[in-house]
Structure formats: C-alpha cells, structure tokens
Amino acid sequence: MADVSPLPLQPGPNRARTAPYSPVPAPQRRTYGALDLGTNNCRLLIARPGPSGFVIVDAFSRIVRLGEGLAANGRLSDAAMDRAVSALRVCADKLRRRHVHICRSVATEACRRAANGAEFVARVRRETGIMIDIIPAEEEARLAVMGCHVLLEEGDGPALIFDIGGGSTELVLVDTAGRLPRTIDWYSAPWGVVSLTEVEPGDASTQEGRLDIYRRMRARVSNSFAAFAARLPRGAREHLRLLGTSGTVTTLASVHLGLASYDRSAVDGLIVPAESMRRVSDMLSRKSHAERVELPCIGHERADLVVAGCAILESILDIFPAERLGVADRGIREGILRTLMARDGFE
C-alpha cells in the first residue's frame, strides 16, 4: 500500500534524466519517480507535488541482493542481475501506468565496484527502458541527507547523518544553522551489510563463534572509520545529534519497540536511546540464525545480514557517542524527489 504522508520539500541541484513514459502534463499534475538500486534492495517511489511537500502515490521495494558474491569475485553474478532485472521490470510497469513525467534512477556501491557494472546498466536499459546512473559515493551521501535531514533533532553544533547500505556506509557531518544542511565533512566506508557479512565468515554454530565474528566485524569497520573519526568534533554527549537512515536502524528500532510487524508510522522520526540500540545489537549478535529468523521484523530476509548492520551501527556510536539516535525511514529516493520537484519550482 502506498504511503501518502506529506514530506517537506527542499531545493537542490538536479541531475535527472527524462524517462520516456508519457507526454508532459500540466505542472501541477506532474508525477515524479525516484528509483534506488542498491547492493541489497531495489526501491521505487512515485509522487506528486502537494501543498506542503509531496504525496507518494505508489511505491515498490524488493530485496534483490545485487551485490551477492561481489566481494569474492568482483563481478555481479548472473543470478543477482536476473533478480534485479525482474524487480526493475515491475518498476518500469509502475512508471508507465502512473504516467511518470520524469524519473531519476540511480545505482550505488554494487555497480560502482563491479567490473561488469556498466554492462549490467546497459542490459537494464535494453530490457526495461530504465536509464540508471551509477552515482559516486559523494552524490549518494548528498541525496540521503536531502531525503532525511528534516528529522534531525533541533540543536546547535554539527550533526552526523549516516546511511548503512548493502555495500557501503555513508557518514555525513552537517551544519544545520541555515535552511538547508551544509556538509562539513563526509566519508564513504566500503562496508555495508552485504559486503561486511561476506568478508567476515566464521563458525556461527556456537555463541562463542558468533561473538568472534561480531568482534571482527566491529574491528574492521572501526579501522575503516579511524581517519574520519579523528576529524570529528569532540563535545558533551548531550549536544551530539545523530540520525540514521537504513534498513538496519529501522529494523533495530522495530525490535526496540517490540513491534509484531513493521510499522513505518511508528518508526520514521522515532528517537531511541543509543544504549537501547546497543542492547538490541548485542542481543542479535548472540542469537543463532534460526533464532533471528523467528524475531518479528527480521525474518528470513534480514536474519543473515542484520548482525553486520549491528556491528556498523555500534562502530558509529563509538566514534559519535550521542545519547540518542534519530531513525529515518526515508533517504535517497526522497532526496531525488525533492531535487526533481525543486527544479520545477515546487517548494
């Protein structure tokens, strides 16, 4: 079911391509699309401008695991590409049926890293008509910030916004003194939930083995964060503001709330004590795969990847020890929509 929550717009630079799905309608009736093909997920939002933002009229999300096996051989596998193309066919059909005026479609770390990423993008265009931009990490970070920064807690001083993806993690330090956030510093770590899981295998049959895997995951991520961490401001914990956008933070927030099934209205914009997220992470790192499968909001689709997400989150909390963590179920797609609509004069 489509989300019809109004989201405030902010202007930004546009790098969209026009999708050949329909004639150009009157501006107030234009429909916009934003597609984010990540290492783990394929996500689409379709929206129209509203009086105070935009209204989402259709949405699609499917776990495709495009980056599965990439860490081992440096290429997208045939099976992974087939899964992604299948999902993208659904997206193409939605774009046509909703008479989308303009759509921007982006791919991130898996396609950036894969030797055959450009070949895959060409195949997608041939078979679905969708033109995908493989965007650099800096653009990925910018779009994530544009999509979720309105959920930052009010306060003074810099804030850290992060996006834990499938193949990478983006960390963006922002100044929020102006109407729009200004990037002070940013870093893209080459570890997301898929890549980190694949690079740190081990014996998960015992709790001791699982904790050893988790320690190694945290050490690897912490080493990657070290140079960025050295540049971060130091201050009292109560003055630090932290906002996360990813399946990891929304899943852990759902576990924290004890939800029987995922509820975006309960999670998006939630403020969670950082120690609560650490406790959830510690609990999940100790459980077996079978035990994680049985937990609501995790299940089969997330059970094997959520522990890597926990390790990345705890490493972020180590370098930016805020007392609270803001949770955002919005990011790159919303950032794309805001950018496209702002170009057409919608505020």
TrEMBL record:
It comes from the Bacteria. Residues 46-341 form the Ppx/GppA phosphatase N-terminal domain. Gene3D superfamilies: 3.30.420.40, Exopolyphosphatase. Domain 2. The lineage of its organism: Bacteria, Pseudomonadati, Pseudomonadota, Alphaproteobacteria, Sphingomonadales. This is Ppx/GppA family phosphatase. CDD domains: ASKHA_NBD_AaPPX-GppA_MtPPX2-like (cd24054). InterPro entries: ATPase_NBD, GppA/Ppx_hydrolase, Ppx_GppA_N. It comes from Sphingomonas horti. Residues 1-26 are annotated as: Disordered. Pfam families: Ppx-GppA. GO terms for molecular function: pyrophosphatase activity.
